[in-house]
Amino acid sequence: MSELNFSPITMSQSGRRRVVACLIATLAIVATADLATIPATQQFCAYGPSHLAVLVVFAIGSAALVWTGHRQTEPQARHFGRVLGVAIMAIFGVALAYKLVQPTIAQSVPLQLCDIAELTAAYALWSQHTWAATLVYYWGLPLSSQALITPDLNAADFPSHSFLTFFALHLLVVWAAIYLTWGYGIRPGWRNYRFAILTTLAWGAFTLVFNTIAGTDYGFLNRKPANASALDFLGPWPFYVLAEVAIVGAIWALMTWPWERKAVDRAPQEPRNVLA
């Protein structure tokens, strides 16, 4: 059982209704935003008005989720998590359906690590299992948040379908990681760190083989992106892949160490978190 932070203050019924209503409104916008019916808009520009608005929503939503998580009872947390999990799956389904309208093996297979993170986030929110929640912590915070801050989005600006699904999914994954860790109270440890490393390596090995057979480049594991990127500083293939593994492993270790240290400090009073 994960660590829970309870408080006598609970979310009101009207507060829960507002949260659900906001999620339903977001889903409705995403589901009905068809590029064929939206008037031509300008191309998305990083750090333009729409991107800055997303970052403001991200900051406010993150604080609200931590505040909410600290004030929920366990039944409320379970219900709230399942609502968010269903929202992620619904938007993921809409995004995948659009990709399958004109399917290509290079774009339509949900093999990017962010795709796996989105599915894992939905399951973690629904089940609140530690192994899933900590995977979202490792995948969502450093990777999905990077996509929010430095988006690689070559599409029309708001309210195009691509804009809405891209930012909605990345927002929800990072929010899931924040809510499960700082709101609900699931903390990673070294055992979770090792599990995340092994799971990510397994994804990388499978995707590398798939790319080789299909001629695709999911995860940029077989070649660098055509546009300039940080991978350009890590050398040629396969050295940049090995460098990525080392860098990510080090970052995840730094993300684990504070929680493990806290767990050791409180060991006489509280049981250690385990992989559940």
From TrEMBL:
Domain of life: Bacteria
The entry's keywords: Membrane, Transmembrane, Transmembrane helix
Transmembrane segments: 51-68, 80-101, 163-183, 195-214, 237-257
Pfam families named among the record's database cross-references: TMEM164
Coiled coil feature spans: none
UniProt protein name: Putative integral membrane protein
Protein's organism: Mycobacterium lentiflavum
